[in-house]
Structure formats: C-alpha cells, structure tokens
Amino acid sequence: MSDKKRVLITGGAGFLGSHLCDRFLAEGYHVIAMDNLITGDLSNIEHLFKREDFEFHHHDVSKFVFVPGKLDYILHFASPASPIDYLKIPIQTLKVGSLGTHNLLGLARVKGARMLIASTSEVYGDPEVHPQVETYFGNVNPVGPRGCYDEAKRFQEAITMAYHTHHGLETRIIRIFNTYGPACASTMAACCRPSSRKPCAVRT
Ligand SMILES: NC(=O)c1ccc[n+]([C@@H]2O[C@H](COP(=O)([O-])OP(=O)(O)OC[C@H]3O[C@@H](n4cnc5c(N)ncnc54)[C@H](O)[C@@H]3O)[C@@H](O)[C@H]2O)c1
C-alpha cells in the first residue's frame, strides 16, 4: 500500500462527489468512492477507473460499511439532494442521513479518520430569517413535504456533533446552498442550468 493519504468519498458517483474525486486525485490522494448509484451515475467517474489511486465500491452506506486499510478522511456526500429524487425515495433518504451517517461515524472512529458531512440549507426549513446565519435554528416541519430530507440532515448534524463531543472524533459540517454545474443529474430543472439566472429550486 502506498503512503498516500486515503480519502473515502460517499456519493462519489454523484454530482458533487464526482468532482471531489477529481479534486482529491489531483491533490495526490488515494480516493475510494462509494456509491449505490440510486441517483448517481457511473459516467461521472468512468474516466477514473484505470487509475491505480482510485477505487470504486458499489455499496449502500445505510448498511454496514467496511473499507480495508487506513483511512485519513471520510467525506459523506451520499444522499439524494433534489426534491425530484428524495420525494420518490423518502425512506432511503432518511436512512442514508441517519443510519448511513452512523455507520460512517463508526468507521471514522475505528480508523481514526476525520469526517466531513454534507449538510444543507434545508436544515433551516422554511426560514423566517434571510439570509440565514448559523446561529438561526430554523423553522422546520417534520411532517411537511420535505421532512424526509430536512430531518435526515438535522439528525445527521446532531449525531455528528455527538460523536465529536462524546467521542472526541474530528468532524466538520458544511451546509451547502443550491449548487449546480457539470455532472448535475438529468433531473435538474431549468433553474439549474448554467445559463439560467433564476435561483435554484431543486438542489437543496
Ligand atoms: N447540490 C446541492 O445544491 C446540494 C445542496 C445542499 C446539500 N447537498 C448535499 O450534498 C450531497 C451530494 O449532493 P449532489 O447534489 O451531489 O447529489 P447527487 O444525487 O448527484 O449525489 C448523491 C450521490 O449519493 C449516492 N447515494 C445516495 N444514497 C446512497 C446510499 N445509501 N449509499 C451510497 N450512495 C448513495 C447517489 O447514488 C448519488 O451518486 C448530498 O448529501 C446533498 O444532501 C447538495
């Protein structure tokens, strides 16, 4: 095994995850992408398959996760991000934010890895404060139409914080606001197209 730093990127065949694979490889890391392809697409990463410093694991992170060898970082980006997707698969969405995050926090602990989770502006729900500041707790409806995504992400942040405070795990939380670009899934609406100037309504 080489002495390169090793990073696990969940959701590695998705929009953001595939760009992260490219970036970490360019920075000299050994990249392990893990994805069950529920909303992602292998075409986003097929250009990487011949590289020795890249591995793809077809796996659902809501089930037990194991990766042989050392791990320095885990970037947990697996989750549907578009309401077009997560409203069709609400239970998988809740599971990947909760069970998936728990599985990966356990792996990070065993490996001594630092873990970053991809959270979302949706943790603020239907906010009454604009623009949202990190100290704002939000206006969320657990039984509302986007509850499966919003509550999964809120739980994801809470359990990540608990592993940090209780187990001393090195963790990072990033709340992403409406990002789109090349490799964004075909489900994207007109507002997501690079030529559009409208605010994004679909990737949250
Ligand atoms: N794009 C945005 O604007 C945005 C905004 C806020 C948060 N986020 C977060 O960023 C992350 C990535 O979003 P994206 O836009 O790239 O979405 P995406 O749908 O393109 O990518 C998500 C990837 O996760 C995979 N996945 C889903 N469930 C899985 C599971 N159980 N096991 C393994 N893989 C699984 C999918 O197959 C897909 O490849 C998500 O966590 C999302 O909540 C994105």
Question: What are the defining features of this structure?
Answer:
204 residues; alpha/beta; Rossmann fold; 29% helix; binds nicotinamide-adenine-dinucleotide; 6 strands
Q: What layout of secondary structure does this protein have?
A:
Layout: E1 6-10, H1 15-26, E2 30-35, E3 54-58, E4 73-76, H2 83-86, H3 90-111, E5 114-120, H4 147-167, E6 171-176
Parallel strand pairs: 1-2, 1-4, 2-3, 4-5, 5-6
This protein binds nicotinamide-adenine-dinucleotide.
Would you kindly provide a written description of the structure presented here, covering whatever features stand out?
The protein has 204 residues and is of the alpha/beta class. The protein has one domain (6-192): NAD(P)-binding Rossmann-like Domain (Rossmann fold). It is 29% helix and 16% strand. It contains four helices and six strands; from the N terminus they run E-H-E-E-E-H-H-E-H-E. A six-stranded parallel β-sheet has the order 3-2-1-4-5-6, sandwiched between helices. Helix 3 (90-111) packs parallel to helix 4 (147-167). The radius of gyration is 17 Å and the shape is globular. The model is unreliable at 186-200 (pLDDT under 50).
